[in-house]
Design a protein that fits this description.
Elements (H helix, E strand, L loop, with lengths): L1 H21 L13 H28 L10 H25 L12 H15 L2 H4 L1 H7 L3 H28 L5 H25 L8 H27 L2 H33 L4
Length: 274
């Protein structure tokens, strides 16, 4: 529970800082060379394969449950939940990418850019599927594999954030400076929390931290997904389209910052540092 409270505090501060940097009057202008509608279409089969990977993980864990000393333990439950949430995340992200609109000329609000940016943030949030590998190996006593995987996950998060930063920049929702600051705010906040807890109150670290953060990722993703699915309806009303053109970048920046903080917290929890 401590990690959950820590995440909420850090996320609120980081989001406030990110929104301040973004400012209320940012003009969203996508990269003219970026055919995001075509790119979105290519994302769908990739996400389908990842969803299949997550389902395979769930099936494997269920069939191997009888080989686990305690199938109801927190560690085993966490691994299963992570794969289940990852499957839902990959599936929902693929639907968002599949429904990215074609660019309409002379429109008040660039709906396609907004949909692509939101779908990219959602995709970054489902690193759960990769994070589940370390506790999976630990569950079956493969400690060396778990250690190596933990190191690989650090690199995966760096590369994954690079893809998110590129999506935000090319869709017009963040400047290059802001994409760097989103990562800095998340890293400083999460690592600062880990250091404070590790030095002042190491007993507050809990084996349930990853489980709590995984459930939070799912709960937070529901309203975000709902907003993205309703966005095309709102964008076709001229009054709402003007409001979206002026303010939707704040929603995307806040969503991206909250997700980035969550991913870093999840990484720290999987590594046993939160």
């Amino acid at each position: 529970m401590t990690a959950l409270i820590g995440y909420i505090v850090v996320a609120v501060i980081a989001i406030a800082a990110a929104l301040f940097v973004a400012g209320p009057h940012h003009a969203v202008n996508r990269d003219a060379t970026f055919e995001l509608e075509e790119v979105s279409g290519r994302q769908v089969p990739i996400l389908g394969a990842l969803a299949a990977f997550a389902v395979t993980g769930v099936v494997f864990l269920v069939t191997q449950a009888h080989n686990v000393p305690d199938a109801n333990s927190t560690s085993f439950t966490t691994v299963v939940i992570m794969f289940v949430v990852a499957y839902m995340g990959y599936l929902s992200s693929s639907v968002l990418f599949a429904n990215v609109s074609h660019r309409a000329e002379n429109k008040t609000f660039d709906l396609a850019a907004a949909q692509y940016a939101g779908a990219s943030v959602s995709l970054f949030s489902v690193f759960l599927g990769w994070f589940a590998l370390k506790p999976l190996f630990e569950t079956f006593g493969l400690t060396t594999m778990a250690t190596v995987t933990g190191l690989l996950l650090i690199g995966a998060v760096v590369v994954g954030y690079g893809l998110l930063a590129t999506a935000l920049y090319r869709s017009g929702y963040a400047s290059a400076r802001l994409t760097v600051l989103l990562a800095v705010f998340a890293l400083v906040g999460a690592v600062g929390y880990a250091v404070v807890v590790g030095v002042l109150a190491p007993d507050l670290r809990s084996s349930e931290a990853t489980l709590f953060l995984t459930v939070l990722a799912f709960l937070a993703g529901v309203p975000a997904y709902a907003a993205m699915t309703l966005l095309p309806i709102a964008a076709h009303r001229e009054g709402l389209a003007r409001i979206l053109a002026d303010r939707w970048h704040l929603a995307i920046v806040g969503y991206a910052q909250g997700t980035t903080v969550l991913v870093v917290f999840l990484l720290l929890s999987v590594l046993g540092l939160a």
